[in-house]
Design brief:
With about 160 residues, this protein is mostly beta strands. The chain has helices at about 15-20, 65-80, and strands at about 30-35, 40-45, 90-105, 110-120, 125-135, 140-150. The protein is built from two helices and six strands; from the N terminus they run αββαββββ.
């Protein structure tokens, strides 16, 4: 009786994340990937600091992280999941859609935004995930995100 070995989880520090994603400051919204189970799930986090450029204009005096940037952080994390195959490195995880987005609680400077992407559908070049963002264990935002892998040459 043979049993399949569990998929090995991967961890990426910021330098490895920068090798996978094309994003750079101020649009890099993933600081670390803490778990990747290919085809199933990805987790990571973003440390939210007062030095973020969006805090200058997003409610000065009462800064909160914009919900759309929380969705972008989830999208970037999910893009890493989609770009795991060596042949897809250098391609882009093109963000196609957001469905059922909900913003439940504000995110403040000093918070750690814990990010989770659970695969809903995965085809060869398409991915749909249920993304969730948490602060201190409390759900702050969530949504269903859809992506397609595109070679950079097709983006021109």
């Amino acid at each position: 009786m043979s049993q399949e070995a569990p998929a090995e989880s991967k961890v990426f520090d910021i330098m490895q994340v920068l090798e996978i994603l094309p994003h750079r400051y101020p649009f890099m919204l993933v600081d670390r990937v803490t778990e990747v189970i290919p085809g199933e799930k990805i987790t990571g986090f973003k440390n939210v600091t007062y030095n973020e450029p969006f805090f200058q204009g997003h409610f000065p005096g009462s800064p909160i992280m914009p919900g759309v940037l929380q969705m972008e952080a989830l999208a970037q994390l999910s893009g890493i999941l989609l770009l795991q195959k060596p042949e897809d490195r250098g391609s882009l995880a093109y963000f196609m859609a957001i469905d059922r987005a909900r913003f439940r609680k504000p995110v403040f400077p000093g918070d750690r935004l814990d990010l989770v992407g659970n695969v809903l559908k995965l085809k060869s070049r398409l991915l749909k995930v249920h993304g969730q963002a948490f602060v201190g264990g409390a759900l702050v935002s969530e949504g269903e995100l859809m992506f397609q892998i595109l070679p950079r040459s097709e983006m021109i």
